[in-house]
Write a structure and sequence with these properties.
alpha+beta; Double Clp-N motif
């Protein structure tokens, strides 16, 4: 399996991996390991690990404490944290790569499309000689017991579409292609469109107190490298845009990049996201979603210091490709 497993992870598993990275950055460790992943799984709100421990009547607090003690024995990196947030590199330990491979095998055996948090936890317990597996075994959490527990099915929420305010009734002259002849929402058929190179750039910013900006620039945020985590969040969000925005088409992105710049005069972090693909529809929403997620992540990472931060001016700056050609904001 590739050392960049995001493509095979579902949304919850990607969230776990990002949380693992936050734990790594906060602890100033040099590589992502199984214990970071296990800690993130145990901390996931309403996640599979929490469900499993509840059903097996195991004290989650005690397990978290044991994992935390294991992490305390990891050596810290001597270098100062990267504060630019431009280049994010996650180095997965050989142990963690083995876990990812085991999880991928479990996914294939279940004939599933994506790796889930359940797959990750079962993969950790599948290696009898791994320290993390032995730690869980000490609490009676063997793979055989965990495998019997199935994740809860999500609750389906049905909107009252008969409400005209929710359903909407666009006029015939409105030209809104995301509504059918009955005024119901639909995903536009793009099968007749030409496959062309598509590119979009979106920008936004988050304003904050000067002290908060200094905290980010100097790498003193308690939760870790703020811009590094924001960049990962932006990339993940771009890849999941179709799951967030109704009627968006799933796209095979060929590239996503985020860039950050400090505006000292206005006490702000400027965010720019660029998305690329070769397909039949544009990537404007992917770029805009990346900027939004990055800004929200910055807020989350330092909200304890400054709850008055303002996310502003998220807009499309450039798009090219497709029938409409080039758009360049003034």
């Amino acid at each position: 399996m590739s050392t960049n497993p995001f493509d095979k992870f579902d949304g919850q598993a990607q969230g776990v991996l990002t949380a693992s990275y936050q734990i790594l950055m906060h602890a100033r460790h040099s590589q992502l390991d199984v214990e970071h992943l296990l800690m993130a799984l145990l901390m996931q709100p309403q996640g599979f690990a929490t469900l499993a421990l509840e059903q097996l009547k195991v004290d989650r607090g005690l397990v978290l404490l044991a994992v935390e003690q294991s992490l305390d024995r990891f050596p810290q990196r001597p270098d100062a944290p990267n504060t630019s947030g431009i280049n994010v590199s996650m180095y997965f330990s050989p142990r963690l790569q083995q876990i990812f491979s085991q999880a991928a095998s479990g996914m294939q055996q279940n004939q599933a499309e994506f790796i889930t948090p359940r797959d990750l936890l079962l993969a950790i317990t599948a290696s009898p000689d791994d320290p993390a597996a032995n730690l869980l075994k000490g609490f009676g959490l063997e793979q055989e017991r965990l495998a019997q527990i199935q994740p809860e099915s999500p609750v389906e929420v049905k909107l009252p579409l008969e409400n005209p305010v929710q359903a909407g009734q666009p006029s015939e002259s409105a030209g809104l292609t995301h509504f059918n002849e009955s005024g119901r929402a639909r995903m536009v058929d793009v099968s007749e469109k030409d496959v062309t190179g598509r590119r979009a750039i979106a920008r936004g910013e988050i304003r904050m107190l000067p002290e908060t900006l200094a905290l980010i620039r100097e790498g003193r945020a308690k939760k870790g490298d703020v811009l590094a985590v924001a960049q990962v969040a932006g990339i993940m969000a771009a890849k999941k845009t179709s799951e967030i925005i109704p009627m968006c088409h799933p796209l095979m992105l060929t590239g996503v990049d985020l860039r950050f710049e400090y505006d000292l005069e206005r006490s702000a972090v400027l965010i720019e996201a660029e998305a690329k693909t070769s397909g039949q529809t544009g990537v404007e929403m992917e770029a805009l979603t990346a900027v939004s997620a990055a800004a929200l992540t910055i807020y989350y990472m330092v909200k304890a210091t400054d709850k008055g931060m303002q996310i502003e001016a998220i807009r499309l700056a450039h798009k090219s490709g497709g029938k409409s050609g080039i758009y360049q904001a003034e």
